[in-house]
Design brief:
Layout: H1 2-10, H2 26-29, H3 58-68, E1 78-82, H4 92-104, E2 110-115, E3 130-133, E4 136-140, H5 151-183, E5 193-197, H6 204-214, E6 217-222, H7 228-232, H8 241-256, E7 259-262, H9 265-274, E8 283-285, H10 304-308, E9 315-320, H11 330-342, E10 348-353, H12 359-369, E11 374-377, H13 385-388, E12 394-398, H14 411-417, E13 422-425, H15 431-439, E14 442-445, H16 450-462, H17 464-481, H18 484-504
Parallel strand pairs: 1-2, 1-5, 2-4, 5-6, 6-7, 7-8, 9-10, 9-12, 10-11, 12-13, 13-14
Antiparallel strand pairs: 3-4
Helix pairs in contact: 1-5, 4-18, 5-6, 6-8, 11-16, 14-17
């Protein structure tokens, strides 16, 4: 099947000239005008455009796609998002992609998502191969995840998903080409832009190959920076041939991308260090977000989750999310040990919600040290997050000392939405230090400073007014900077600019797209 697809694509080089030589007028090819240059979400105006474009229903979307084969240009650029995880998975990247996709529909974009079958869902291990929800069309691979609890299983599942993603894109191109050939129409790629994430880490290579084969432009969204994470975790040596190959592939992928989106200034600097030839304006820093309408402050007295787990009375410190190899749980454990001795008369309750590679290690150390007032709970359903995240008085966020410029914890933004102060354990060079200081929403602590973290927890326990003020400041900061609408506006600007370049044939930069795709353009 794969050879037939490639043969069909290569045949387009012999297609009649009427499909390739004529150019549309600028008026026909130009998308809706967007005169604003990309700005940071901090300065981005709230989406006055949000809601100005109706969300297409399943029926209208189907009509639009049928009409697109008969029109030279869709009014709304068509974007395909590639990400291995998507609800009903509770993986953080899947939840973020779902919220982003629904917001982008309101930004004059047609959004489709190609994803995998659930691997971290609560109640189901399968989902429809195709469905439409809130104006977003979702396509799912037929292959389920394999051994997700093991590194090799995750790698194998990721490779299989990458292959399925590539075949999906190529098949969609072949189908559209067959339709336009039978009707004698001009062909253009099925998708104007690909938005490709690093879940799995090598997924951007799929977008690179699709660009070389059929000329589809792509934007890279870097959630986690590999192979840097793998080398700093000592999974693979920096001098290993696979590491060197991965870096070369990254440079090739990034140089061909229309834009690269990272989640922090720290990640931007690391990408520039790994690929110095990248133009500085090619990397956009767009933070994660949380929905303040879904997660909002709630008193513990009125919170069923707090009542269920006996968290109403004690001062409660919450860690919610992944406890993986990129997170510093040792500093948190040191603070717990210190507080166990200091607060016997007024015990402080620690609650850990989630999972990850360090969960069992932490549980074993808590038991070995005889620490009390510690509760471990599984991941909570999305509809319950507004209750679980507010069943506390302080939220913990942690990043390992070697990971400050490679990852950006999305749990921070949910904590801000919950209106609770945050205690962040992170390296000194992390962007989290300046963010928390500017928001005045809590405090940051260098890795290994468990005693100082414990002192801060004790201070808030004795000063509930200060804790409330910091929580309110964090909530206000989120509403000003990190709402889904504001972040989606920043993403939409990047995607519209990429779609405009695709339709006009403009180059991203003097170094970009110098060579033609492996096959002549349609």
């Amino acid at each position: 099947m794969f050879s037939q697809i490639i043969q069909s694509l290569s045949n387009k080089q012999r297609s009649p000239a009427k499909h390739t030589d004529q150019s549309l007028s600028n008026k026909q090819r130009s998308p809706a005008k967007h005169t604003n240059q990309f700005n940071s979400p901090v300065t981005q105006s709230d989406s006055s455009s949000t809601g100005s474009h109706p969300v297409p229903t399943s029926e209208t979307r189907q009509q639009q796609q049928q009409q697109s084969f008969q029109q030279p240009l869709q009014a709304r650029p068509n974007v395909l998002v590639l990400n291995q995880f998507f609800p009903p998975d509770f993986a953080a990247t899947g939840q973020l992609v779902e919220e982003l996709a629904k917001q982008l529909v309101h930004q004059n974009l047609d959004i489709e998502v190609f994803t995998g079958q659930p691997g971290y869902a609560f109640q189901t291990q399968s989902a429809p191969a195709r469905e439409d929800t809130d104006g977003v069309r979702i396509w799912r691979s037929r292959i389920s995840h394999i051994w997700l609890q093991r590194i090799r299983g995750k790698a194998l599942s990721g490779l299989i998903f990458c292959l399925r993603s590539f075949l999906f894109i190529i098949q969609r191109q072949v189908v559209q080409r067959q339709i336009v050939q039978t009707q004698g129409l001009r062909f253009r790629p099925t998708y104007d832009v690909l938005l490709v994430t690093t879940a799995p880490p090598f997924l951007p290579i799929v977008a690179y190959l699709a660009h070389r084969l059929v000329g589809i432009r792509y934007v890279c969204l870097i959630y986690d920076l590999y192979p840097d994470i793998a080398t700093r975790l000592d999974v693979i040596a920096p001098t290993h041939w696979l590491t060197q190959l991965w870096h070369r592939l990254n440079r090739a992928v990034w140089s061909r991308a229309d834009q690269i989106i990272v989640l922090s200034d720290s990640m931007q600097r690391q990408v520039m260090q790994n690929c110095p030839s990248l133009p500085s304006d090619k990397i956009s820093v767009i933070h994660s977000w949380a929905d303040p309408d879904h997660i909002y402050p709630r008193a513990k007295q009125d919170n069923w989750f707090a009542h269920t787990h006996n968290l109403v009375q004690p001062f409660t410190v919450l860690y919610s999310g992944n406890m993986g190899r990129c997170h510093d749980m040792d500093t948190v454990l040191a603070a717990m040990q210190h507080l166990q001795v200091k607060t016997d008369d007024r015990p402080i309750q620690f609650v850990f919600i989630g999972g990850g590679a360090k969960l069992k290690i932490l549980q074993a150390e808590v038991e070995a040290l005889g620490l009390t007032h510690v509760t471990f709970l599984p991941y909570q359903a999305k509809q319950d997050l507004s209750y679980s995240l507010t069943a506390c008085d302080l939220t913990l966020v942690s990043v390992s000392e070697t990971m400050g410029d490679l990852v950006a914890p999305s749990k921070l933004y949910s904590a801000l939405a919950a209106g609770r102060p945050v205690a962040v354990v992170c390296p000194r060079h992390s962007y989290l230090n300046s963010l928390v200081a500017e928001a005045q929403c809590g405090a940051t602590f260098a890795n290994g400073r468990g005693k100082q973290l414990a002192a801060y927890i004790q201070m808030l326990q004795g000063d509930r007014t200060l804790a409330q003020a910091q929580g309110q400041a964090g909530r206000q900061y989120l509403e000003t900077h990190f709402t889904p609408q504001k972040i989606a506006t920043a993403y939409a600007q990047v995607l519209h600019q990429a779609a405009h370049r695709a339709l006009t044939g403009a180059k991203r930069s003097p170094k970009s797209h110098r060579k033609k795709s492996l096959f002549a353009r349609f």
